[in-house]
Amino acid sequence: MYRKEYTVTVMGAAGVGKTSFISQFISGIFPHEDDPTMDLSNRKLCLVDDERVLFDILNTASMEECSAMLEVCMERCEVMIIIYSITNRESFLHVSTFGHNLLQLKKKDYFPMLVVGTRSDEHHEREVSTEEGMAFASQNRCGFLEASTKSNHNIEKAFYDIAHEIRQYSRDHPPLPHRMPFCGICNSDRGSYGIVDEKDLSDFDGPHITYAQKTL
């Protein structure tokens, strides 16, 4: 039995709720103000369709002015979540820039991405319609949903969706075989990159993400 480790980069304009989005998923807590001490990398082990998945989530909230660090996060990721606020049209206009930069950096014409419109509970202040978000995602072959970090609406589903995005991408673009080097210290083969022997996780009692949707 193995678990998959997925590296997820969360991008978006300043103030759209990236830290709140991650915090709600990791701990189920909605912070009333951004925590500048939140770790760059945040990890959570879940069950997705009865498969153990470790999400390694890279938070770019403190990097808006540091292009070099943003590039590092984009280079590391296997999927990117691009967040905008439905109450801020300017943040929506930044979405295409983040997506374009990722494709350029990866040197690909397609890469797994999920576009998330946050603050879906603030209907009275909406500046970006659901239809606009859906149209953008369709044109750019991205997943899409709207979510509320305050009410925890669709936060878990976002990570369920990206797990499926990565699985589909991996099937369509199988990687070349790659092995970690032989370890001269412990005298053992360290196994395939990105796959961890989890015999010690047989008693896993963490969160189980499952939805009544067809398993990809």
UniProtKB/TrEMBL annotation:
GO terms for cellular component: membrane. Keywords: GTP-binding, Nucleotide-binding. Coiled coil: none annotated. GO terms for biological process: signal transduction. It holds the Pfam family Ras. InterPro entries: P-loop_NTPase, Small_GTP-bd, Small_GTPase, Small_GTPase_Ras-type. It comes from the Eukaryota. One of its GO terms (molecular function) is GTPase activity. This is Ras small monomeric GTPase rasa. It comes from Massariosphaeria phaeospora. The lineage of its organism: Eukaryota, Fungi, Dikarya, Ascomycota, Pezizomycotina.
